[in-house]
Each structure stands twice: as structure tokens, then as C-alpha cells.
Amino acid sequence: MLKDFKRISETLESISRGIDNKIERDIEDINQEVRTVAKLNRRIRELEAIHEETGDLRDQRDLAIKNLSLKLKIHTYQDERGNYVVTSPGLGTLVTAAQSQELKAYTFSKDSSSNGMDGSVEVFYKDKPGQKLTSKIQKGSLAAVIKVRNNDVKELREKVDEIAYNFMNFVNAVHRRGYVNRKVEMDPNGNPIKGDNKGPTTGINFFKVPTSKEGAAALMDLSQEVKSDLSNISTALSPNSPGDNRVAIAISKLQHERVMGEGTATMEEYFLKTVGKVGLEAGKAKLDNEQSEGLVAQAETIRERISGVSIDEETANMVRFQHAYEASAKVMQTANEMFDTVISIKR
Question: Which residue segment(s) compose the domain that 217 sits in?
Fold first, then answer.
């Protein structure tokens, strides 16, 4: 059980660290696209000023805008001076003409992070490190991974910590009622003594007492008394009773007690409900992704139909125009031969 709680806690921390790395990579990609759009804006205006063709550069800019829109929600427009502007709701202006505003990822301590984990990544403007933007990012893959880290993973971690915290306290409460698994001396009145040369004979905690719910799963450990002497593990409710296992049975029955959710669920039910919620969210996200991909594919088809080039259609047109040209050439050739014949007759 102890290893399972630690494993789950380490897995959730590993997921958070992986998301932090993903956020840093997304910030680098966003900055690259922002710089590209600003550079293309400048180049397009320079070429337009001397009446040069800018179609290819505009296509490159559209591609950069498309890539940028995958990471976060953006809007584009031209201002009154004809400058191409890229903005993001919640963040502000990212590109104006040839000027760009880049983002930066910084790591923070547990107390300052938005998900309560030490070393978590937060997003800022590169030139304005005092303004945290993490919670203001809307839509796109960047907002999605931030939501998973700050909401879903954080909630699951808190639930696991709550289960671990309550589990340790309930087990300790039962374990303290038992007596050590060694001979316990009696006082003159026939009552068991509270301690011997090895330490207390009752009232011993099985787990190290947790100080708070936060981080309880990762910090779960056996008490020092149990780690130093296994005879301190209490299974009997009465001293000097080798066949008494009432404490052990009471601890085993904790899995069936409704001690979680204000007495509405057992620890197992509470955990399965939490995991089930994650599964439902994952299924919903998968379905939403499939629907979004369908809408994107439909929009791409419409866009290509309006502004794209069909290779098959252009090939057919080329063959048709080629045949028309050959036919016209034959007509001209025939007319020329007829003209030569008329000239020769007059001679």
C-alpha cells in the first residue's frame, strides 16, 4: 500500500514535469512563429513599396499564422496604416507590423506556482517578467496542457493525498488501541504496564503521523517505532494474547468503512470515483478532438475549393488549352497555305 501511494504520487509528479517541458517547447514555437510573422510583415511592405510580387511571402505568413493558431487563440487584422496585427485574447498584441512581443517561461517555487508544485513553469512576457499570463491563455494546445496540469492533475493529486492522509490516521487510530507483539508485564493490580525496556507497549502509531493532507501520499512512511522494532506492530487488542488478531481485522475492515466524502464513500470507492472522472474527461477530450478534426478538415476543404489549386483540374485545363492552341495553329497554317496558293495563281 505504501509503495502504491508513492508510485501514484511520483507518476502524477512526472506527468506535471512532462507538461512543464511541453509548455516550454510551446513557448519556443510560439516565439518562432511570432518572429516569422513580424519579419514577413516587414519584407512584404518593402516589396510592395517597389511594386514587387509578394504572393509567396503572404503564403508563408499565412502558414505561420496557422501554426500559431494551433498553440493559442489569435485574431488578425490590418490597422488604419495597413500594418498586419496579430493579437491573442487575454494576452494582448503579439505582432504589429515588424514589431513582435515574445513570451517567456519561468520556473517557480510551490508557494508561487499556479498548481502548487515546486519547480512548475509559469508564462510571462519576455520584456514584462512581472505580469503572469499562465491563466490568461485561451484555447489552443498551450491552454489545454495548462488546464490539465493546473486542474485535472492537481485535483487528482489532492484526492490521492486526501485518501493517504485519512488512511494513515484511521490505521493509526486503530493500531494505537492494540498491544505490542511481545510479552507485556503486569503491575501489582493485574493491569498491563504502559512501557518496558523497549519502549511503549500500547498507543503506538503504525504510520508516521502526517502533518497535513498536502503531499501526504509522497511522504507516507512507517512510524519510527515500527521501523526500529517489528514487535511494535500491534495485532492484538489484549496483551499477551497470541491468538488475538482483532486489531488486524479492524484495520482490514477499514476498506469497507464509509469514511470519505463526509461519510458517503469508502476509500476504495472514493479513489475509483476520482480515477473514473479522469477517464470520463479523457474520453470526452478524445471525442471533442475527433469532432474538431472533422470540422478542421471540412473548413480546409472549403478553403481549398475557394482559393486552392487543384492539380487535376489544372492538368485538364492545360491539356484543353494545348489542344485549342494546336487547333488554332492548324487553322493559321491552312490559312497561310491558302494565301500562298492565291498569290501563286496571280503570278
Answer: 156-276
